[in-house]
Specification:
alpha+beta, 9 strands, two-stranded antiparallel sheet, rod-shaped
Length: about 200
Amino acid sequence: MGTWTSLRRERIAVAAGLVVLFLGLWLAISRGLDEDSAAPPEAPVATAPRRQTPTRPKPAVPRPAPFVRLTAAGALDPEGDGRERDEEAGLAVDGRRDTAWRTERYSSTFSKEGVGLVLDAGRRVRVERVVVDAPAAGGRAAIQLGDEREGPFATVSPARNLSGRTTFPVARRPGRYIVVWVVDVPTGDAVEIAEVRARARG
């Protein structure tokens, strides 16, 4: 009887110890979870603001100079009789492409330094561009400028082949009289200039 009682007490003591152990483990785990859940949130990491590159404004595109009104002042033939169909000069500034000033017809090779159509801008202007309409290809011309009707004239845009519409850029050179200086004429033919326009300021 005494032995059975001792075994029973030992079993009760072991069971009680296991209960205490499990309770301790459960409390420890619960406390750990509570501490994790109660932990303050991590402070956000401060990042340096991105430096924005200032946008540079695009440079304004300069507006082209306006067209100036041109009138006929005659023609030049320094190595000939001084004239080159002067009476037709106005046909190159009448606003019509079906009329034209033309050089003389040269039956042999054109050997002159040039002949010219002289146009008057009415005042001294800074020429930026000269546009020449030629109905037929074959001729070649340069642009000259001067302050007097009889010259002297200076070349401000080198010679180019004339074919259809030919544009001569000019580096804003000043002058009143614009000369379309024809430096080459097809053999047995003439050069025709249907219309001349000029962009200029002043």
